[in-house]
Predict the structure.
Amino acid sequence: MSDTEEKKIVEQQEEEADVHFEPIIKLEEVEVKTNEEDEDVLFKMRAKLFRFDSNEWKERGTGDVRLMQHKQTKKIRLLMRRDKTLKVCANHYVESYMTLQPNVGSDRSWVWKVTADVSDGTPEAQTLAIRFANSDNANQFKEKFDEAKKNNEGLKKDEKKEEEKEEKKD
């Protein structure tokens, strides 16, 4: 076969392969609510999250850990979603009892206990660990976490004062 005959056969095959189908169902754009619309991001950094389960550490996911402050209540929560699926792997308020402790043998990870993490839908107590790319990032996270803790603690004190004022009025 000559080169021109081969080119004609290839061109015929390409013409036959140019098929176009109209979609059967037209998809409409749906607005997705993440419950993050009323919050400001105070801190965001890539990390890997683990949880302690049955005497071993299990990976929870890799993604951006964020400290989010609600625009009205000013409460700060920790939220982390997995990279590709965007599934929530950590979701809890930063409370005054939480203390970040260095993970044994690593200067770039922290461990803390949570009484009510709602990443799986229902609140449950967990021990979490988070690991960053380097120790500088880990220290930045600790600073912001401690600031969030102080902020939320101050809000609780303000709420108690308001409650006491209301009780005195009654």
Observations:
- The chain has two helices and seven strands.
- The chain has one domain: 39-162.
